[in-house]
Amino acid sequence: MGKSFNRLIAGVVVALVSVIGAASAADAPPEIPLTVDKNQFQPTEVKVKANTPFVLVITNKSAKAAEFESKDLRVEKVVPAGKTVNVRIRALKPGTYSFLDDFNQQATGRIVAE
Amino acid sequence: MGGTFVITLREGFEAALIMGIVYTYLQKIGAERHYRYATRGGLLGVLGSVALGALVTTLSGPLLDLGPDVIGLAVILVAVTVLTWHGYWMQQHARAVKGDVQHRIDEAQASHRLWTIGVLAFTGVFREGAETVLFLWGLLTQATSPSGWASATGAVLGLATAATLGWAIFRGGRHMSLQRFFAVTSVFLLLLAAGMFSTGVGRLEAMGVLPQSSMAWDTSRALDDHGVVGGFLNGLVGYRARPSRLEAGSYLFYLIVSGALLFRSGPPKPRARAPRGQIPAHAA
Fold this sequence. Notes:
Chain A is of the alpha+beta class. Chain A has one helix and nine strands; from the N terminus they run H-E-E-E-E-E-E-E-E-E.
């Protein structure tokens, strides 16, 4: 009993570890940089692979806070001045998804998933 | 200047509406001496916004990535709960209004704990508050040039205009009958809460907590929700130009469930409440 119980525990631990390992491996989606500077996004068009999750790494190089907002992506994210924020974006169907800086609405851009 | 004016007006609009409503509400039920519940709630909302705004600028890494989202979701959850409860209560009370004024007031104060007013005021201000603080802070640091000054002035004027709108609601609402005020605001709060609920569900969807669903419709060409009119409708009734099915569905779900709760469970109008198929006692 004791032995099989230990085996069971070991089995569960191994299974858990492998699941977590697989999850964290799958959890390392590509990082796509996006910069806010001089009231502009750089680049203004971000190309990503469709149906693949990714992380948008948004760096605000300007002296004031920006808010990355995309109603299409359901994201609203404040990026304080001089900070970098990682925004996980789920796998997108092919298409165009617009975003803007809600604090400075002439700064706009779009994500093209293809 | 125009751009920043619109932004703060929009951010402050919802808070001003809610503050206008809660003050009018207190005045309506004859609880003017309890204005402090609304005032304290609103002030706490401002303080909380400043604190969160300051905190966000010191955070980094995962805390900055996720912290504001979690707080944002929690606020939405609390706001929807309080709005639902309050709307329900107001509707109940609007139906129950009868008898003399003093009786009505005592009943209102006894059956509705006034601290919920404070929570409503707090969430109303806090929800968009931290963002507004960061936005204003950014503008003020750049207010050294003439154009910077113009932007900062526009932003302050936007907030002032929002506050004026809240005040106008308070002035106007005072002349409405209690019943009408309760009826109108409970519908309005219902729509507002439905919009928030759907926003919260959308966030969960974007974060991967809920499964992703496809777009329900696209009206972004006709009425963009980033535009002035669409933006206001977004804040007021949760209008969305490109919602997911889950968001649109949760909006409807909320409307139906709490609408049913609101409009069907009032105190009995004797005739309407007689169960169907049951023979009234006097006829038996």
